[in-house]
Amino acid sequence: MMISWKNIWRNKTRSLVVIAAITLGLFGGLFSSAMFKGMGDQRVHEALSKEISHIQIHNPLYLENPEIGFYINRAGEVLDFIRQQDGVAGVTSRTKLTVMIGSTSANSGVTVLGIDPDRERQVTELYKAVFDSSEVARELKIHDPEQIQAFLKDSVGAYFKGVSRNPILIGEKLAHKLKIKVRSKVVLTFQSVDGNLTGGAFRVCGIYRMNNSMFEEANVFVRADDLAKLTGLPVSKPHEIAIILNDFNETTPLVNLLKQHFPQLEISGWKELQPDIGMMNDFMNAMMTFMIVIILLALGFGIVNTMLMVVMERSKELGMLMAIGMSKIRVFSMIIFESVLLCLTGAAVGIGISVLVINYFNIHGIDLTKFAKEGFEAMGFSAVFYPALGFDFYLLVTLMVVITGILASTYPALKALKLNPAEALRTEV
Amino acid sequence: MNIIEIKDLVKIYDDKKSVPVKALNGIELSVAPGEFTTIVGPSGSGKTTLLNILGGLDDPTSGQIIVNNVNLSTLKSREKIDFRMRYIGFVFQAYNLIPVLTARENVEFIMHLQGWPKKKRQERSAFLLKAVGLGDRMNARPGKLSGGQQQRVAVARALASKPKFILADEPTANLDSKTTENLLDMMEQMNRNEQTTFIFSTHDARVVAKARRIITIEDGKVIHEETKK
Questions:
Q1: Extents of the domains making up chain B
Q2: I want to staple A358 with a disulfide (CB 3.0 to 4.6 A). Which of A34, A41, A132, B7 is the partner?
């Protein structure tokens, strides 16, 4: 291996050009992959943490026809069972109805979710999507209740604070559509449990903001108790149970367990709930790997060329080595090692630079708000994204670089083995 | 007991495209241990072919070549490589040192291939390089050494693994008179001290003058032999 390493530096310019090509190729591939992964991860995180959670449970009839009467029977028993399972970070139940929401300016069809704000905090990060003025007021040390009220009035509100009776949390996109702001009054119209049309007035306590404008426009949140009073459907009969786990990779085992215990219910993991998210995740991973493979393939041909030149230039020396007793396997290994070390040097520099640049942007973000904010958000992506790559991907790339080095130098190494020492010694270079 | 026995050795180069060339035509030869022998003859007489076959780098068309009681024709390619590594030292006209290794590393290289322990390798390489007068240039790379110095390193390398004999193909062709004289003196001394057999192929009269046995070949045949007293 020592002689292989020294051989690399015989022709410094050529080796540095190859190393630079590997470095730039890998940096390009890794940075693009990190951007894809960052975007994908953000979308998945956003969807899982704020929209769908890891597992949802419904009455199967509700999924076919979201009627108020298709609630989950014996929901308390289900919730207790879930809370006893390992790896469950939080669980909550929701009343979920399709309603009409109206302001003085406009009407719209939306889904209203009746939630327990405290339990919802354990499951989703909806509370983080609200610019919480009361938190800011506390940080600014505003203690006077009147001042706090005044502060809240002019802001985008709080997560179920600041409004005592029938508070409602709405998305920014819907707020624009209905031309309402914090403390505006809206009216929800829906079917009660006995089949009559009913409704109630709610006051906007906060406006939430997500990277998914479609979700913002279609979902509003109220307290489950408030909704129960209007619908006549008790909180103990929810339409949806949402579970968040400590590790989302544990989704399938828990889904299977719950299916065994509650066969009458429809239990879905996040990939079933939003197949596009799962598909996008898989697609991003495939794209990243594909891109790296293309880059390494191109580099591989460059290395084949370089190593063929090396073998041709050194045929006399290779002949001498074979003459004095260097076995074919050693000659073969020497050329393979030279290629692998060349690749690994380029990989070390390329990966090193990539780690630094990706980590920098992972902290500071890449802001494309000025260029394509609406376009990104319409697709559910944030216009500010944070490139990210896992250690396992760097490891995989390093392994792929080594394999490329071995494969690319196999043909030149085999050519070296075919040299006849007596003839090679007569070569004039 | 001879170290080399050659019987009716024939080598014909036939690439099937041009007229076959008979490079060796029934050579009969034996070499005893400790000889300091030179093979002379005009260009194309078959000297290099004979040395290549002696070194196991080429196969004869017919005939027998027994080296150290081993019939080289019966060895497989891998066994021949191993045989060369253990029993034969090579000195080439163009030195053929590994440019990225120091003089010492070049000498140690073959011992490394043979799996010598590091300490023994270092001791042997230092001893040999001092013996060839390069004790102070052990860490120099070939590019920093003169032609004569490089050939001395090549001789030290050839001797490193204590081979049964050394094949030297035109070792002085690229050297000036004084360097040639020094190199030959050094090799003769090694021949006496280490009891290593030297077989040269050369045109150089200075080498012929030093040799104790001179074998002249022409048209692939031994036409004359002379042993000096």
A1: 33-58+74-227
A2: A34
Query: What average pLDDT does range A12-31 have in this prediction?
Result: 90
A372 inside domain: yes
Domain coverage including residue A35: 2-46+278-425
- What is the pTM (predicted TM-score) of this model? 0.70
Task: Please write the tens of the pLDDT for every residue from A84-93.
Answer: 999 999 999 9
> What CATH superfamily is the domain B33-58+74-227?
P-loop containing nucleotide triphosphate hydrolases (3.40.50.300)
Q: Is residue A55 a part of any domain in this protein? A: no
Tell me the C-alpha distance between B8 and B30, whole Å. Answer: 12
Angle at B108 between CA B102 and CA B109, to 5 degrees: 90
Share of chain A above pLDDT 90, in %: 38
Q: Are residues A282 and A258 in the same domain?
A: no
> Would you say B139 and B106 are in contact if contact means Cβ atoms under 8 Å apart?
no
Taking CA atoms, what residue in A is nearest to B161?
A324
Task: Choose the closest CB to B90 out of A324, A330, A420.
Answer: A324
Per-residue tokens: B168: 């030297």
Token duo for residue A38: 């960052």
> Which of B11, B52, B139 to mutate against chain A (most A CBs within 10 Å)?
B52
Q: Which region among A256-260, A277-281, B178-182 has the lowest average model confidence (pLDDT)?
A: A277-281
A173/A152 Cα distance (integer angstroms):
20
| Domain tally, chain A | 2
Which chain A residues are within 8 Å of B82, Cβ to Cβ?
325, 327
The answer, yes or no, to whether ipTM is higher than 0.90 is: no
Scanning B139-158 for CB atoms below 8 A from A yields: 157
Q: Is the pLDDT of residue A151 over 70?
A: no
Q: What residues in B contact A325, CB-CB < 8 Å?
A: 81-82, 84-86, 110, 113-114
